[in-house]
């Protein structure tokens, strides 16, 4: 069975629904931060409760560090190299798509941070959305999507569970340590899913194929059978 036939990509309709839903949630979170709405106030109350129930500092700090560039980006880079090696250099399109998703994520996060300029739990500005949470999800999710076609179904389920657990743990660590509000992290998750779904759709859309049909050769005319001889002559 080839890698292409084992590709576990989601149905295009489900992918579109995920993109629309996550885009709408990201817009809602951004609006609430700008307007300081009810969701904004609930967010600060939830943060206080989460920090009060935080685990030991060392564990929370370790989880928050997953989103560091020196941790998440090497994972994505290794998956890119592996994907190119497995495809003998022909898999450049997915590599380019997921690399672009990371770049677009960084640009959007920087732009929205500057626009909203939300104060962090410990002071300062520019905390919405969380760059660490987005980096973790896009890097780990993109890395898995790059090599997913070569994994068995059981291993793929375990790998996706690992990505979800690490992304969730990173987000919790950021809130527990007071580096971000919960809404900062949730918005970054929505943005990350939106970018990963878009990158997956572009990665599967190959270049247009040109038709190279060889002209059919004219079949030789069938040999005509000789006329029957007149034996009565």
From TrEMBL:
Residues 206-216 have a biased composition (Basic residues). The chain crosses the membrane at residues 66-86, 95-112, 132-151, 158-179, 185-203. InterPro entries: PAP2/HPO, PAP2/HPO_sf. The keyword Membrane applies. Residues 223-233 have a biased composition (Pro residues). The keyword Transmembrane helix applies. SUPFAM superfamilies: Acid phosphatase/Vanadium-dependent haloperoxidase (SSF48317). Residues 206-233 are annotated as: Disordered. Residues 124-199 form the Phosphatidic acid phosphatase type 2/haloperoxidase domain. Keywords: Membrane, Transmembrane, Transmembrane helix. This is Phosphatase PAP2 family protein. It comes from Streptomyces tubbatahanensis.
